[in-house]
Amino acid sequence: MAANSSIIADFEGQPPSSATRWPARNSMGAERRYRETHHAKGSGLSHLQELISAGEGTEPAEVRRLAGEMQIPEATLRGVLSFYTDFERKSTATRVCQGTSCKLAGSSALGASLRSNHECHDTYCLGYCHRSPAVLSSEGELFTGNDARALANGTFSGIHAEDDSTPLRCLAREPIVLRNVLKGHVRDLAAARAQGVYEALAKALRGTPQELLDTVEQSGQRGRGGAGFLTGAKWRSCANAPGQPRYVAVNGDEGDPGSFVDRVLMEDDPHSVIEGLILCAYAVGASEGVIFIRSEYPRANAVMRQAVAEAYENGILGKSVLGSDLALEVSVRTGMGSYVCGEETAMLNAIEGWRGEVRIRPPFPAHAGLNGKPTVVNNVETLVNIPYIAERGADKYSAFGTARSKGTKVFSLNHGFARPGLVEVEFGLTLLEVMEEAGQGAGGQRLEAVILGGPMGSILLPQEWGVQVCYGRMGEAGIQLGHGGLVAIPEGADFRALLEHWLEFMMEESCGKCVPCRLGSKRAWRLLHQEAPTGRLQKLNRLFDLMEAGSLCAFGQSMPRPMRKLVEKFGDRIFAPGGRL
């Protein structure tokens, strides 16, 4: 361990990064007081956002004033504000996506050109990977593809985000997740009800919570956020946990560069998200729900807030859900710029108004989650499956897929494919079949590899594309399905630039809580750029081993895997010719 630790300890200098997130040095007493004082409804991160937007920002005098008003140490407040990048950046700035798909589409050069005429900053990720590169103005105007490139010359006025449409296809026997949006946008309540949204809820409310819980458990559905944990088992653990109130937290912080299914569902089928949330609350006995959405999805935030308001106005939320004895309050919270807040415990910290750092587990959120109470955390795609299960039954749902992976999975295909967009597939198809439907490379380009599941997922070579889409089969092959984002890597791609991108992404987005992730990513970046390459590959692999073994959450544990494979398979193209590895 001492030898591996020295790999990190000898880091010298500061690699390029727009922000360094140092751990906050706050006492446990300050943290406790902050949590106890500001956990009332509407407080937490949303409370800070409201206070700052009403004041003068985060200037020293304003921070001192806010700390006094909130009755917490100034250092405690600074520790929170310094964590989230949106507090450090002007709201009037244009966001230039630097997610992996946009990187491959030339967003680095685009960002450099835009800075000569615009006030802008980089962001990960805007969720338009099928139309990379992507730029979002402070007014909500979305520019993608050639229109984004033309921005540097000021030659195009742009399109608004609400004018966007995402190509949708289904390879399953029937759609489950996309069953409503394949028929058209169902954003407002009238359109949603015309498609049958909330009928499954009405049916479930005529039965008991135990019956619904049994149905979800028997369906074999797994969470679609990446880990693939059995949804019914998570719900039952929360339902059986002591403590009140109970919560349902919807993770809409979809941040994997290459994934955008949750964005589309929140924007085009928001009431199905709410229906899934209510069904979960009924099954586990929760009285409050929180929908957490990343700030990089402004349209999803607006649409979900409107849908929640419609649900309240029509008796779907509130003191009596559809006239039943179920009472449920639901709010929408907006993140402030942190990829790690996609991790469930980091997201809970953010909702509470604390730094978005991961928590040590156990205890798990199902026993001690939001405000220390039992909490179910599910992502958007997971919950959109639930109405189908509640309406059609466990047997109907489990008839789809494989013995170890029931139902369907939506893949997000980036612009590097001939036919990008969202594709819903039944578990059991091969990845190659999905890619053949997508048309392989755009413009007839051959693909050298694909990235599956974002930077924490897997990089797959052509000989690995025949793997079956199944959590069990993929797990046995060491492949991470993740959130189902597929990014095409065309022949002749710059693999050194890709490795640099992943390391910079890791440095930028590490929450800073644990040393292996925070400093390990910086040390790896330095090893890549050092002038004397002797023994570099050996040192990188040792460093990756340390990061995997010593990091607290999946971010630090998982990112080294695809980077190690990149170095092993494409090292001759990553390192300078003649360099010794």
Keywords:
12% strand, disordered N terminus, 4 domains, six-stranded mixed beta sheet, 43% helix, Glutaredoxin, 581 residues, de novo design (two linked rop proteins), five-stranded mixed beta sheet, alpha/beta, 15 strands
Which class best fits the helix and strand makeup?
alpha/beta
What is the name of the CATH topology of the largest domain? Rossmann fold
CATH class of the largest domain: Alpha Beta
Strand order of the largest sheet: 6-12-11-15-13-14
How many beta-strand runs? 15
Q: What summary fits the major beta sheet?
A: 6 strands, mixed
CATH architecture of the largest domain: 3-Layer(aba) Sandwich
Q: Approximately how much beta-strand content do the residues carry? A: 5-15%
Number of helices: 26
Number of domains: 4
What's the helical proportion of residues? 40-55%
CATH superfamily of the largest domain: NADH-ubiquinone oxidoreductase 51kDa subunit
Shape: globular
Regions with little confidence, pLDDT below 50 for 5+ residues: 1-43, 158-162
Give the termini distance in whole angstroms: 23 Å
Computed over alpha carbons, the radius of gyration is 23 Å
Whole-number mean pLDDT: 85
Secondary structure blueprint with pairings:
Elements lengths: L1 H8 L18 H10 L7 H10 L5 H11 L3 H8 L3 H4 L5 E4 L2 H5 L2 H8 L5 E4 L10 E3 L4 E4 H6 L8 E2 L7 E3 L18 H6 L4 H7 L3 H11 L11 H10 L6 E6 L8 H8 L1 H15 L3 E6 L4 H16 L15 E6 L9 H9 L22 E5 H13 L1 H5 L9 E6 L7 E6 L4 H7 L9 E6 L5 E3 L10 H6 L8 E6 L4 H15 L5 H15 L6 H15 L3 H5 L1 H15 L7
Parallel strand pairs: 1-2, 6-12, 7-8, 7-10, 8-9, 11-15
Antiparallel strand pairs: 1-3, 3-4, 4-5, 11-12, 13-14, 13-15
